[in-house]
Amino acid sequence: MDWPHLIAFNLTLLAAMASPGPALLLALRTSLAQGRAAGIAAGFGLGLVAAGWTAAALLGLEAVFALVPVAYTALRIAGALYLLWLAVGMWRDARRPAPPARAPAPRAIARAFRTGLLVNLANPKSVLFASAVLLVVFPPGLSGADRALIVANHLAVEWAVYTLFALLLATRPARDGYLALKPMLDRVAAVVLGALGLKLLIDR
């Protein structure tokens, strides 16, 4: 494996992270609504699982899904139901005032981290995507050190991007803009999450 392979992987990863989806939506909304620390915590949870899916792909988990399709189906349904549950809660709380801007309690930060973990766990298609990207970008016969470097690189990129999001979006102007449009933005986010959950539920 050479550095051009890693650069190509990172460019593909950045493009995937920028596409609308539950992970990006959670990172943006958490940073706007709950502040910098919660946004970073959510990003750490998202990144940890995303890198875990890449590790699983490198270990051949997609082959396990192919051999035992019921495992993939069960994980997909559980993930879809979790996204729908998040969407319902977001819609229900859309008109609830946001908490005042202050450092979130450790419990809130832990909850943001846990939500980040669960949102990316809710999408088992990530391992299929990772498998396809790894197959196209990297040469065959990767060593154990190469595989570890790929996973560590993925984790570093995810954490760096979500931390940057949190730092940019947790500013006073960004938060004021969000608060002014909170009911509409939260309901749009709920619809998007709900649509993604339904898509995951009905896809084959």
TrEMBL record:
Principal subcellular localization: membrane
Domain of life: Bacteria
Topology class, membrane: Multi-pass membrane protein
Keyword Membrane belongs to the record: yes
Keywords noted in UniProt: Cell membrane, Membrane, Transmembrane, Transmembrane helix
Any one annotated GO CC term: plasma membrane
InterPro entries: LeuE-type
Localization: Cell membrane
Molecular function (Gene Ontology), one example: amino acid transmembrane transporter activity
Transmembrane portions of the chain: 6-28, 40-59, 65-88, 117-138, 150-172
Classification via PANTHER family: ARGININE EXPORTER PROTEIN ARGO (PTHR30086), ARGININE EXPORTER PROTEIN ARGO-RELATED (PTHR30086:SF20)
The name this protein goes by in its record: Threonine efflux protein
